[in-house]
Amino acid sequence: MHGSKHEDDGHSTPEPDLRSKAFPRVMFSLAIVGVMVGLMIGRLTTPEERVLEQIEVVQGGLDLWFNEEPKLHGENVEGTVAVVFEAQGKSQRGQLTLQGKPVGWRVQKSEEGLLLTVVAARPLQGDWVGAEDAGRWRVQVRLHE
């Protein structure tokens, strides 16, 4: 057992590894490339967020402008109009005039998205309809007593 020469495999010196030392590096590089390609595919297939871009006060109601069609659910509840949009946006509030009387509206964030609430001193009813207009999506909320 003198020295580390390979004579008859009767000593404790291990045999040299015949595998390339580059194998772990190649596997690690392939894993990184796979993760990067997966991230790029995920980014391309993720739908764009729906965003409330603008609110316009118009005769008889509101026009809400979105970058793309939001899912919405609305109800007339005890004289109040409430519409929930599955979209992102900032909280806003304002007033409009309906038949010479003031009406208050407010957009606020909720668990489901954005909540539009329209209230007045008298019972209100509302109708809403959405349509594509000039590459954006417009939801028209029309109010009446």
Automatic annotation (TrEMBL):
Which domain of life does this protein belong to? Bacteria
Ranges annotated as spanning the membrane: 22-42
**Keywords linked to the UniProt accession:** Membrane, Transmembrane, Transmembrane helix
The protein depicted here goes by the name Uncharacterized protein
